[in-house]
Amino acid sequence: MVILLTGGLAWIFRLQLNELLLFLRDRQMIAAYLEPLGWWGPLIYVAILSAQVFTAVVPGHALLVAAGYVYGFTYGWILNFMGEIVTSQAVFWLARRKGRPLVQRMVSSSVLARWEHSLDRQGFLFFLICFWVPFIPSNAANYLAGLGSISFPVFLTANLIGRIPGMTLATLLGSHGLELSGRQWLGIAVLGVLVVVGSRVLRGRIERHFT
Question: Residue 89 carries which DSSP code?
C-alpha cells in the first residue's frame, strides 16, 4: 500500500518533482538560493547536525552528504567536523558532568541496560569499534562514554579516528558524486552492501567479546 501510494503521488506531482530534481542537480542554483542567508545558512546546518548528534536516534549520514553537495568538499568537511565531532565531545562532556539522569533520558533503556555494567572496563578500542561497526549507535556511544572511565583526550582520539574516514567519504560523495560514472556508483553500492553485511556478522561477536 505504501509503494502504491508513493507511486501514485509521484505520478500526480511528476511535473513538480521534475522541477525539484532539476533544481537539486544545479549546485549553483542552490548556492544562489542560500546566498541571502549569509552566515545563517552554515550556522543553521551545524545546528541541525548537532541536534542530530544530541538526540542519539536519527542517523546523520544524509546530512553529511548534503553539506558536501551544497558547500563543496572543504567547507562542507569543516561544517561536518564542527557539527559531528565537536558536538560528540560536547555530549561526552555533558554526560560526564550530569551523569546517569541525563543519559537515561537520551539513550534507549535497552542499550543502557546492556552496556552500563561494563562501561568502566571499556577504553579506546571499544569506542573506536563503536564508530567503525555500529553495534551501539555512534551517537549513543557519546553518552555511554561519559558514564564510563575513559578520559576526554582518549575518547577524542577514538572519535577522530573512528568518525573522520566515514565523514570524509560522505562529504566527498556529496561534493563530487555527480561526477562519478555508473560503474563507479555500482562499485560504491557493492562496497556499501559488503560493509553492512560484514557489520551484521561481526556485531554479535563484538558484543559477546566486550560484554
Answer: H
Rounded distance between C-alpha atoms, residue 147 and residue 100, angstroms = 7
Residue 22's identity, in one-letter code, is L
d(CA 202, CA 43): 37
Which residue in the block uniquely carries the three cell numbers 555500482? 186
| Under 8 Å between Cβ of 186 and 194 | no
The pTM assigned to this predicted structure is 0.70
Residue among 133, 132, 136 at smallest CA distance from 116: 136
List phi, psi (to 5°) of 107.
Answer: -115, 140
Contact present, 95 and 102 (Cβ < 8 Å): yes
* Helices and strands (DSSP H and E) totals, the chain: 13, 0
**pLDDT string in tens for the chain (211-residue length):** 777 887 887 777 777 666 655 544 555 555 565 556 677 778 888 887 888 788 755 566 777 888 888 888 898 899 999 988 999 999 999 998 888 888 888 887 777 777 777 777 778 888 888 887 766 777 788 888 888 888 999 999 999 998 888 889 888 888 887 677 777 767 777 777 776 666 666 666 666 666 6
Supply the DSSP string of 125-154, one letter for each residue: HHHHHHHHS-SS-HHHHHHHHHHSS--HHH
- In this structure, how many other beta carbons lie within 10 angstroms of the beta carbon of residue 116? 16
In whole angstroms, what is the distance from residue 87 CA to residue 51 CA? Answer: 9
Q: Per the structure block, which three cell numbers stand in for 2?
A: 505504501
